[in-house]
Structures are given as structure tokens and as C-alpha cells.
């Protein structure tokens, strides 16, 4: 998807602060951090959002949730962190490539909505 921002970051066409990469997953620092640690973990394959996860492509989600605690450990988030994925306009999704925010490094607010 040449018009997708995160596909272009994964391809190296747009620079990013990469924190992790394997055959299925790419992770990089959010450009506008909402917490001292704010990392985005994305599938390399273009999936638009959580609603695009299917029985055929969901192996990458398992990989993402294997990688997330590894990144959290490497970032020193031993007192906790939050994982968030915004799906669609009502959730405020701005980039239409599935991504999971890792937020940590401070006491996070409890509001969910
Ligand atoms: P969401 O609002 O859940 O779709 O999250 C999109 C996130 O992507 C936001 O937190 C943005 O700050 C972040 N973002 C947008 N452009 C870039 C970029 N070029 N590099 C890193 N993060 C970005
Ligand atoms: Zn994409």
C-alpha cells in the first residue's frame, strides 16, 4: 500500500525511530508521544484495523502480543504499561494500518472513554 504511512515507514521510505523488527512485525517510537514511552507495534502486512483481523491473517497478532512484553521489558516498563488499538473513526483512529500503542513510563489516567 504505497499510500499508507505505516507501510511506507516499514519499507524505510519514511524515517522512523525503530525499536524492533522481525519477519512479521515492526515497532517504532510514536512521533507525538503521549507518555514517556510511546511505541507503535504494527504488522508488516497491511491490515487496516482490528476489524480487518481474520482467521487467515491473525497469526501476526499473536506475534505482536509476544513481542509487546519483550519490548516492555527492554524499555524498563516493569511497573506497568498500557496497550491500546484504536479501531475506526469513533475510536479516533488516524492511521488506517493496524497498530498497537504501548504507553508507559508514568502513572496513566484511568479513563477508558
Ligand atoms: P491512532 O490515532 O490510534 O491511529 O494512532 C496513530 C499514531 O501514529 C498517533 O499516535 C501519531 O502520533 C502516530 N504517528 C503519525 N505519524 C507518525 C510518524 N511519521 N512516525 C511515528 N508515529 C506517527
Ligand atoms: Zn499499511
Descriptive account of the structure:
- The chain is an alpha+beta fold and 113 residues long.
- The chain has two helices and five strands; from the N terminus they run αβββαββ.
- The protein has helices spanning 5-10, 59-74, and strands at 18-21, 25-29, 37-43, 81-84, 100-104.
- It has a five-stranded antiparallel β-sheet, covered by helices on one side.
- Strand 1 and strand 2 (25-29) form a beta hairpin.
- The relative contact order is 0.22.
- The structure holds adenosine monophosphate (AMP) and zinc ion (ZN).
- Zinc ion (ZN) is lined by residues 1, 4, 6-7, 46, 97.
Distance between the termini: 31 Å
Proportion of residues in extended strands: 15-25%
Low-pLDDT parts are none
Q: Main sheet, how many strands, which sense, barrel?
A: 5 strands, antiparallel
Counted beta strands: 5
* Count of discrete alpha- or pi-helical segments spanning 4 or more residues: 2
Give the integer mean of the pLDDT values.
97
Strand order in the sheet with the most strands: 1-2-3-5-4
- Spell out which ligands are present: adenosine monophosphate, zinc ion
Question: How would you describe this structure in keywords?
Answer:
2 helices; 113 residues; binds zinc ion; globular; alpha+beta; five-stranded antiparallel β-sheet; 19% helix; binds adenosine monophosphate
